[in-house]
Amino acid sequence: MYLRWYWTLSLPLPMVRYTLSSHRPATLPMSTTIEKRSILDLELEDLEGVGPARAKKMREAGIGSVIQLATTSAEELAIETGWDKDAAASVIMSAQKLLRESNFLDKEFMTGDQVLEKRRAIRRCSTGSSKLDELLLGGIETHAITEFFGEFGSGKSQLCHTLCVMARQPAPTGLDGDSIWIDTEGTFRPERIDQIARARGLDPDDVLRHIHVAKVHNSSHLELIVKELGKYIEQFNAKLVVVDSVISLHRAEFAGRGTLADRQQRLNQLMHKLTRISEVYGIATIITNQVQSTPDTFFGDPTRPAGGNVIGHASTYRIYLRKAGSDRVAKIIDSPYHAYGDVRFTVNEKGVDNIDDGSGSGAAAGKTTARTKKKTSGKDGEAAATEDDNDKTAEGDI
Ligand SMILES: Nc1ncnc2c1ncn2[C@@H]1O[C@H](COP(=O)(O)OP(=O)(O)OP(=O)(O)O)[C@@H](O)[C@H]1O
Ligand SMILES: [Mg+2]
Question: Engineering a disulfide at 127: which of 132, 208, 343, 348 sits with its beta carbon 3.0 to 4.6 angstroms away?
Answer without folding.
Answer: 132
